Amino acid sequence: MLLCSLTLSVTPSQAPCDPENVASLLQCSSGVVTVSWEASAGATGYTASAQEDGETHFTSCSTTGTSCDLTQLECGEVYTVTVVARDGICNSTLLATTTIKTVPCPPTIKDHSLDCASNQAYISWVEDDDAVGFLINASSALGHTPFCSSTNTSCLLDDLLCGQTYTVHAIAQGDQCNSEPSESFEIVTAPCTPANVRSQYECGTSIALLSWDETLGRDSFIAHVESGDHSDSCSTTETQCFLTTLMCGHLYNVTVDALAGHCNSSQSAATQIQTAPCAPQNVSASLLCGNNTVVVTWLASSGAVGYNVTALGRDGDAKTCTTGDTSCDLPNMHCAQTYEITITPFSETCKGFQSTAFTFIAGPCPPTEVQTSLQCESNVGSVSWVAAPTSKMYIATATDQDGHAHTCITNGTAGCSFSELKCGETYNVSVVTMERGCQSEPSPPVTLKASICPPTSLAGVTACGTNDLTITWDQNPETGVTYFLYSQKEGGANTSYSTVDTSYVISGLQCGEHYSFRVTAKDSVCTSSLSSTMEMDTAPCPPTNLTAQANCSTNGGTITWDLSAGGVTYTATVTGTTHSFTAFCTSNATSCSVKLDCGHPYSASVVASTGTCNSTMDTIQFDSAPCLPGNVAAALDCSANTFAVQWSESEGHRNSYTALAIGSDGSNLSCGTSSTKCTINSLACGITYSIAVSTANVNCATIEGSDYRIQSAPCKPESPAVSLECSTNVAEVTWDNAGPDQIHMVSAVDWQGVKSSCNSTGSNCTFSSLSCGKAYTVTVQGLTDTCKSTLSTSMNLLTAPCVPTHLTADVDCEAGITSVTWDSARGATGYTVHAEGSGGHNATCTSSDTNCAFLDLVCGQDYTMVVLANHDSCVSLASESITTTTLPCRHTGLQAYLNCSANTAQISWTPGNGTLIYKALAEGFDIKHQLTCSSPSSGCNISMLQCGERYRVSVRGEGRTCPSPARDWVVVNTAPCPPTALSVQHSCSSDNISVSWAASHGSISYTAVAVSNEGHWLSCNTSTTACDISGLLCGQKYQVYAAGVDNSCVGAKSNIYIVNTAPCVPTDVQNALDCLSGVLTITWQQSGYTPNHYHAELTSSEGLLTVCDTNVTTCVVSRMQCGLTYSVVVVAHDDVCNSSYSPAQQVTAAPCPPDAVSAVVDCATNVVTVTWDNSVADLLYTVTAECPSGQHYTCNVTGMGCDLSTLSCGTEYNVTVTPSLGGCVGVNTPSQLVKTGRDQSIN
């Protein structure tokens, strides 16, 4: 490249200086930035420019001064502001700068929402980093201005008022300025809670009117009532609604909510309604015996604070009581009256519903016309009466003077008898009626006198020497009594005696006779019964044929005689004739014995006795036995079985003694010796011997025994045997060779050496307390006082096995096997279990172990089980029984029936044996809902099923030991749900209503029903959700509801809507006119409900309208204008509608009096001529002239004048004209005074 050098000639110029102190000021309201600076040297003008960081776009302003405004800056940006000075040629540098942050941008609202419950609004916006904060402002049409602020992107407006529409905008806050408001939006808060909720409850109808104050922000209202088992609701756009399905006896919690399209009121207004108490149930009455009181009881009615009980008798009697309890006593009921008992509960505010009348018959009346009679022979009193109404059982009471009573009871008969009356007593007899355990008042007492008493305290005295008998008795308290004494000789005839005394003597009797005596008493009415029997004897006859015999070996004397007549006991007296000796013996037989001294003479006598008399005596003489050697003693040699006998020596007889052993079996053994001892051999074993010693010179008859006795050696038992009764473990041991006078000891020893024994004097012995299941060794041994025999051969005995214990049974519910176990029994080798079923089935099983299993027991039976142990020879007693139940039998025939009105499933089945209780389960197919019911029998009801659903119903049982599972099921379709949102459209002029509703779950079709308070019933059916019901009657209050219908049920009703049809047209309108006063009374009849008021209109023939308003069916109109005809109609009004006008009735008011009446006297004739104007056709005018004395004269005319003649001259008369039409007499004209006797007219 080529370079060249060029030289230019220029004049140097200096650029303006940079402006100093550059400042910027942001104007918040307009967003304009005012830039200012100090003037710089050399500058002729300035340019201020603002440029965003990183952007090429900028805005500027130019000026020759030291400030200018920058406009069109974007919000929320940071600008670099540069001021450049210029002089037309050069500019200053760009170093004169400052920065400015513009006004924040308005926030961009991102979202907003309202929390209806708290009336708080949540507001959010797009994030803006240029803002240091945000302010949310809200204002309502009513002037409320809440706000909130935030440094992030959301904010909560928490003090909004209910029922307001707020206009809301947001403002971003900068360091210096706030932004413009954002686009505004609206927030509509939840409607306000209704205030001052009130209820008006009609006790008699259970209809409640709810009302409340108007509230802000609502579209409509909904009221809910709830009381445990029942709820209802009503919706309305008004500030009141009716609740028509309230149930009696409930305390309802009432809530009212205001509704709007977006929210409901945040809180519910609340109150309570206590409905009238329900009619008491389970009314019963029972008779309380005291005061003929009826005790009335019932179940409590919910909500009741008290009860009024009324009993109305058919005879007009009324009894009442008031109580706060569930029972009440009504005393003093009229006997045998039938009462109707009703109970009416009441609360603090309401009279409740009356119970169904309970019929009760009061306590019985006493019988009437009570009469008594007496049967003397039996002393039985009879009472009779006329029966009381409705009663069949009677108790008659006879009470004596001491208060002792006799009663007789009869069923169905009007009489009974008193037996066992106390003789001689006077009784007061009354009768009561007995019914339902209560007695009536007693009948008035009547008297019954019992039969005279028989004589008492019979006593007799025998004159032993003469055999005369004297009989005495007590005096009867009555006077004029005769006594009859009856005598019966044993083996002889009867004899009777009479006397008025209290004693009698019978003489001429023989010894040894026995008599029975009885006495009766007789008064003027009755003869008493016989007294008690008294036995008497005459003195006994003396005994005969006395004999006496002496016994050598015992030194005894026996006296014998023949029985004597009348003798009861005999006493023998023996007296020594040569020595001092006396002995007695007594017997009721023909002999007795005494101990005598040997070798002496005696006399003996015998006397017969009756206890009161003794016979005479006879005497005999005899000698006692000769004396034998004394001090006899004997010793037994047990092994040799011999007696060594010794005695004392008898003088003169030393070489001739004989010792005798006389056996208890009659045997005699002896030994002879000249000494004082010898041995008797060959004794029989086990015998008791009497030992006596005799000498050769003693003359005795056969010696049969002595007072000295000794036993021989015992016999050895032979051929022992043992037998066992297994059921009782009683063992009997027998043997042979049993000595008749010895004792046998039987021993049974077990393997442990424990010994049991029994003793016997015979040939057998019984063990009753041997232990079960043991082996015993049994032996028998004979015993006497001093010796023992050798043992018998031994025997083995095995007792019956012990009874098994702790028996238990277990049922395997799956396999149906019943296992039985027990504890082992001593002595057992095997076991048998017996099972006896309650249905008659029996089974057994055997085992060598301590358990056994039954495989084939019948289901559903209670089995009683026992176990028996056995060995080779015995079976034990049965163990204590146990009872076990096999698994229950299956139920069959499962069925389910739906009660549509209650949505209750009635479940039934055929029970299986052995099931104690069943549980039915209903499970929803399409919903998670289960309900159950239980029953011990064949059915139960499942209630509270949800409407419009399908349920699977199954039944399972529970036995005593095992369950019975459900094995089948049936389907129940519940009734359709009630339709909701019921709406009824009706008008006053139509008899049709249009009913609509929201579809309900489970419904195939629908029926809408209107029922009037008089029972008029109308309906329409449809498969849609609306239909029209036509033919509604006037003047009725209709309850309108809808119900869903499926193939088998009509479902529950919807809420009820009340429709009041227009009032009926008043009928039979009657007019009663009082012509003279002009008062018209209008009456009419009204059908249907009673309207609020009536409006009667009277329109005259001249168009004049008169009205009369009243709330009764009578209206009175006064001051009917005379001479006019009126048309009368009546219309009925209620709050909303009015009826049509009744057919018009015509009524004509009284005729008007004529005008311009003139009366002129003709003095010559004394005729008064009366004339008037405007005479009306068909009217009758009566002219009357009346003088002060009361006389009057009249003339009748239909024209305009009339002459009165025959008037007295010189008399003043008051003249009037009276119009009348068809019996309706109008008002008189003002009187005109005329005086006869001169010709002038008085006006």
Overview of this protein structure:
- InterPro entries: FN3_dom (IPR003961), FN3_sf (IPR036116), Ig-like_fold (IPR013783).
- Residues 18-105, 279-365, 454-541, 890-977, 978-1064, 1065-1155 form the Fibronectin type-III domain.
- This is Fibronectin type-III domain-containing protein.
- It comes from Oncorhynchus mykiss (Rainbow trout).
- It contains no helices and 102 strands.
- With 1243 residues, it is mainly beta.
- The strands form 28 sheets. Strands 31, 32, 34, 35 and 36 form a 5-stranded antiparallel sheet that branches. Strands 74, 75, 77, 78 and 79 form a 5-stranded antiparallel sheet that branches.
- Strand 67 and strand 68 (842-847) form a beta hairpin.
Terminus-to-terminus distance: 161 Å
What's the overall average pLDDT, rounded? 87
Radius of gyration: 69 Å
Helix content: under 10%
Q: In percent, how much strand structure appears in the residues?
A: over 45%
- How many helices does DSSP assign? 0
Largest sheet: 5 strands, antiparallel
Q: How many beta strands in the DSSP annotation?
A: 102
Shape: flat
Class from helix and strand fractions: mainly beta
Spans where pLDDT lies below 50 across 5 or more residues: 1-11, 1239-1243
Descriptive key words:
mainly beta; FN3_sf; flat; disordered C terminus; Fibronectin type-III domain-containing protein; 1243 residues; FN3_dom; Ig-like_fold; disordered N terminus; single chain
